[in-house]
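Backbone-to-sequence.
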C-alpha cells in the first residue's frame, strides 16, 4: 500500500470531545466528495470544505511506500515535538482518510503506543482496530460508518439534517457551526439547536479562535 500524505504536524485537537488534546495530525491527500479544485466546488457533493488536501507538498508530506515508514515518520514528529513519550495520539484526517488508512497502519502505530483516531465523512468502510472514530456526515449516499465515538454534524447543511443521524450508534453527538460567511448566523442556529435538543452538544473549532492549525 502506497500512502499519499499532504502534511503531518503536531498541534492541539480543536474540535469535539477530544478538544484541547495534543496530537499529531496526518492529513491524507484526496477526497471522494470533492476534487479539491475551486472550479468544481459548486457541483461537488461536499461544497463547504475549508481544507487544502491536494498534493503532498505540506509539512512532512510525501509518498510513503509502507505503513511502517509512515508510522515511523509520525512517531518522529511526536518525539521531536513533545517532552513526554507517553500519551501518544495520532489523528488521521484529510481529505477522506478512509480511502487510504489500513489496519496494518493502525496496528503499526498502536505498537508504537499511539492511540489512533480518524475523522471521516463516513462513506468508506474503516479498519476495525481504530481507537476513536469521528464521523462528520456530508451525504447519505454510500454512508456506511453508522457507529463510532462521535458524530459531528456541520450545521446547517442544505441536503442533510442532524435529526436523520440521531439514532445511530455514537457515544457523542455534536453540532458544529459551519465556518463560512454566514458564521454568526450559523453559530446562533447551532446554539438554538443544542438548547432545544440536548442530546446534541456544541462543538466549536477552537483552533480557529486561538489561531493554530
Ligand atoms: S468530505 Fe471533508 S475533506 Fe472532503 S470535501 Fe468535504 S469537508 Fe473537505
Amino acid at each position: 500500500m502506497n500512502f499519499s500524505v499532504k502534511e503531518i504536524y503536531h498541534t492541539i485537537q480543536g474540535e469535539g470531545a477530544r478538544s484541547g488534546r495534543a496530537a499529531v495530525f496526518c492529513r491524507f491527500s484526496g477526497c471522494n466528495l470533492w476534487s479539491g479544485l475551486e472550479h468544481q466546488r459548486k457541483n461537488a457533493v461536499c461544497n463547504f470544505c475549508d481544507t487544502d488536501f491536494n498534493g503532498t507538498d505540506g509539512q512532512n508530506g510525501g509518498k510513503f511506500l509502507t505503513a511502517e515508514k509512515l508510522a515511523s515518520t509520525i512517531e518522529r514528529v511526536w518525539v521531536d515535538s513533545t517532552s513526554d513519550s507517553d500519551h501518544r495520539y495520532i489523528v488521521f484526517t484529510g481529505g477522506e482518510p478512509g480511502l487510504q488508512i489500513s489496519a496494518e497502519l493502525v496496528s503499526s502505530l498502536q505498537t508504537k503506543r499511539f492511540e489512533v483516531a480518524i475523522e471521516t465523512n463516513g462513506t468508506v468502510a474503516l479498519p476495525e482496530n481504530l481507537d476513536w472514530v469521528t464521523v462528520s456526515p456530508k451525504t447519505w449516499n454510500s454512508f456506511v460508518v453508522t457507529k463510532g465515538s462521535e458524530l459531528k454534524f456541520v450545521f446547517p447543511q442544505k441536503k442533510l439534517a442532524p435529526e436523520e443521524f440521531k439514532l445511530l450508534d455514537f457515544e457523542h453527538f455534536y453540532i458544529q457551526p459551519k465556518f463560512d460567511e454566514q458564521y454568526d448566523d450559523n453559530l446562533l442556529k447551532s446554539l438554538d439547536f443544542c438548547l432545544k435538543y440536548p442530546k446534541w452538544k456544541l462543538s466549536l473549532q477552537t483552533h480557529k479562535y486561538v489561531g493554530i492549525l
